[in-house]
User: Which sequence fits this backbone?
């Protein structure tokens, strides 16, 4: 079982393929997506930096590439998945 509700695997896979394209999924996107998928609350850029080991500028660039899948709160600025069906509970 992948953790997604039944029937959503192909939808998420196709969406990711369109957005991520030819970039290196394992190195660029998977670490942040993994953190966001298990977080109980929205994570700040500092949280993401501390948990992932990426530099601050890397976090900003990678978050920009994941915009279709995440939402940003303003106060404090933090990130979470836009659709909660991908969050592991």
Assistant:
């Amino acid at each position: 079982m992948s953790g997604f509700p039944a029937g959503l695997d192909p939808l998420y896979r196709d969406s990711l393929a369109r957005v991520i394209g030819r970039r290196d999924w394992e190195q660029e996107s998977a670490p942040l997506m993994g953190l966001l998928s298990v977080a109980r609350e929205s994570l700040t850029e500092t949280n993401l930096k501390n948990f992932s080991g990426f530099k601050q500028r890397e976090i900003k660039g990678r978050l920009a590439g994941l915009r279709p899948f995440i939402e940003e709160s303003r106060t404090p600025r933090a990130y979470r998945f836009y659709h909660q069906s991908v969050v592991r509970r």
Summary: Strands lie at 70-74, 77-81. The chain has four helices and two strands. The chain has one domain: 24-86.
